[in-house]
Design goal:
CATH architecture of one domain: 2-Layer Sandwich
Oligomer: single chain
Shape: elongated
Number of helices: 8
Distance between the termini: 49 Å
CATH class of one domain: Alpha Beta
CATH superfamily of one domain: Histidine kinase-like ATPase, C-terminal domain
Length: 290
């Protein structure tokens, strides 16, 4: 559609001393409008053709911008989901454990101030360590989008620190085993996910399963990384083995672990008995979110 007469008001033309207007329709997939060419002289077949080409180019650019905005919104939504999972698997679990430690300290008042002071000292150290970890995480968030280099400890070192905190926080024995070949082939984002996976699985066993001993084994098989978390607690409210699909269909099991693992293209299986539980997660090294 081509218009040789002005499609804008006469007052507008007079105000800006516009004598001739060429207007063509712009029809992008999600945008409709018009493109105006001012004072182009007498229209010719060539100028009309160029105007139509310019309108088509503008429509393509508008569609491209629209889809880029949708992609950015999707990325922001995905980042919000990731942050929510990290807060649940990290900060909220830590706060729960700290509250239990403080409750225990209150219960020790009858044993004398020395015992209470020792327990409160443990809580203070845990809070200090968690504060340091949060500062490191925030530094990673603020530098990630600016191309700045932010070095964090490797996964094995981070998991070692997690084990120490869990043992102090829950008065339990946590044993960690991790092959060196795992970290060598791992991307930093996958390392972050594995850290939170181990944290969530171990904390669940301590808090819900009342476990006293936990084993964490992280190992590699071909192009997959395995996380095996075993405990001597009371297990889940069923006996036997359940694969990922069965857990999702029944609406049972640790929802955060199931969601995070599925988002990475992996799977969770759980064996439960009255002697404890075994949570087995398998993730590809080139996972969707890694």
């Amino acid at each position: 559609e081509v218009q040789q007469r002005p499609a804008i008001t006469l007052e507008f033309c007079r105000r800006f001393a516009i004598r001739k207007v060429l207007s063509v329709s712009v029809r992008a997939e999600h945008v409709r409008g018009r493109l105006f060419f001012l004072d182009t002289g007498e229209p010719t077949r060539e100028t009309l053709g160029l105007a139509l080409i310019a309108a088509d180019e503008l429509a393509d650019r508008l569609d491209q911008q629209y889809f880029q905005e949708r992609l950015r919104e999707s990325a922001v939504a995905a980042e919000r989901v990731r942050l929510a999972r990290d807060l649940h698997d990290g900060v909220l679990q830590f706060l729960t454990g700290t509250a239990l430690q403080l409750r225990t300290a209150v219960g020790m008042l009858a044993d004398g101030p020395h015992h209470v002071a020792t327990r409160l000292g443990d809580v203070e150290r845990m809070v200090t360590e968690e504060h340091r970890r949060l500062r490191a995480s925030l530094a990673g968030l603020t530098t990630r989008g600016h191309g700045m280099l932010h070095r964090e400890p490797g996964l094995k070192a981070r998991l070692g620190g997690l084990v120490e905190r869990l043992q102090a926080q829950w008065r339990a024995q946590v044993n960690l085993k991790m092959g060196d070949d795992v970290e060598f082939a791992m991307s930093p984002p996958l390392g972050d996910h594995l850290y939170h996976i181990v944290h969530e699985a171990a904390t669940n066993a301590l808090r819900h399963g009342n476990a006293s001993t936990i084993g964490v084994d992280v190992f590699r098989e071909d192009d997959t990384v395995h996380v095996l978390v075993t405990d001597d607690g009371r297990g889940f409210p069923w006996e036997g083995d359940r694969p990922h699909a069965a857990l999702v269909a029944a609406g049972v099991g640790p929802r955060s672990l199931l969601d995070r693992t599925a988002a990475l293209g992996g799977a969770v299986s759980i064996h439960s008995s009255d002697a404890g539980a075994r949570v087995h997660l398998i993730l590809p090294f080139a996972g969707r979110g890694a």
